[in-house]
Amino acid sequence: MKQFLKELSGWFRFRKIPPEALRIVFFHENHQYYSYLEGLVRSLTETHGETVYYITTASDDPILDNPPDGIQSFYFKSLLSIVMGSIQCRIFVMTLTDLNHFYLKRSFHPVHYVYAFHSLVSTHMVYRYGSFDHYDSILCVGPHHNREIRKHEALYDVPEKQLVDAGYYRLEQIYEAFQTTEFADATPGNTVLIAPSWGKKNILESVGEQLVELLIHAGYRVIVRPHPETVKRTPEFIERIQSRFDNHEALTIELSVATNDSLFKADVLISDYSGVSLEYALGTNRPVLFLEVPSKINNDRYKDLEMPVLELETRSQIGMVLSPDDLDNVPATIELLKAERSTYQERISQLRDEYVYHFGRSSEIGAEHIMKLLHKIPEQADL
């Protein structure tokens, strides 16, 4: 009841905003996604003097109680579909895919929808078919996104969107912060991070317990960083790992992805198909050990595009791949990756240049695109 009253209060505040003032709205499912767009928000509020109206479905989102300057925050959950369907803003920015496919629909008012990626992975395998079809602009991370989306539009006769060569703020943030840490120039140590994707076939739920035990017995310090959806959907699995290892001093379980500490501390990352593998490698110049579990395919038509899938194509360039049946070889492979760190650094640096637009300028470019849209789109009061 308390949360509903909080939501209702926000609804009345939101309804009082004049349509001509409601220029830019950002939507996040929870506060962990704010880190992907923080730079864009700050560029709009600090450089361009805009007010950003921030909508979240998480009642514990810290921005609700302590919004940064230039942000007005609102909590909507049970009322979200109503708000979305009737909103009268000019620009609506979101990291959530599948607009208009499920319960979140485009407004019946003329709103320009901007999608911002929260991963470097390709668009045509892990995302559902048509996940990006109903946005008006997309802030592309790199040329692979541009090529994939244009091919999808041409193949399935989908109207062309505005594609912006923007880049990826989250990666810029990791890279810049890592350079200032004590770990940037440190010699390889014995810390291993396990950060998988989510779903029943991910490495944590398929071989996670055996892998953790193997690594601890081999003398490594292990950080387990489950995907947020795993924490939310299968908390009993996390509890089982905690119980089995009884708070072992060599094991840390990190339940939040809002910080980068574990990425910085890890000498090697173990993952499957998670986008974090690319963020880790391109953000720290360190290698990844991939365990070959079945690919995460949410679009059965992905082969129609006849295009490479970035998260598959780059694995051999940023690390090594092992079968889960070869877990006994994991420690030796970790040592090999550590020994060849300098070789991987060169490869990873080249990949970052090849697959990420305008490194260091994504927020500036995204904000400039939104400001141009505001000058082109008439105010709701004039419609």
3D architecture notes:
- A 7-stranded parallel sheet has the order 3-2-1-4-5-6-7. The chain has a 6-stranded parallel sheet with strand order 10-9-8-11-12-13, with helices on both faces.
- It has 2 domains: 2-168 and 359-382, Rossmann fold (3-Layer(aba) Sandwich), CATH 3.40.50; 175-355, Rossmann fold, CATH 3.40.50.
- With 383 residues, it is α/β, with parallel strands linked by helices.
- Helix content is 41%, strand content 14%.
Descriptive keywords:
single chain; 383 residues; Rossmann fold; six-stranded parallel sheet; 16 helices; 13 strands; 41% helix
Q: What's the architecture of the largest domain in CATH terms?
A: 3-Layer(aba) Sandwich
Summed over residues and divided by their number, the pLDDT gives a mean of 91
Taking the sheet with the most strands, its summary is:
7 strands, parallel
Total domain modules:
2
CATH class descriptor of the largest domain: Alpha Beta
Question: What is the overall number of helices?
Answer: 16
User: How many beta-strand elements?
Assistant: 13
Report the uncertain regions. none
CATH topology of the largest domain: Rossmann fold
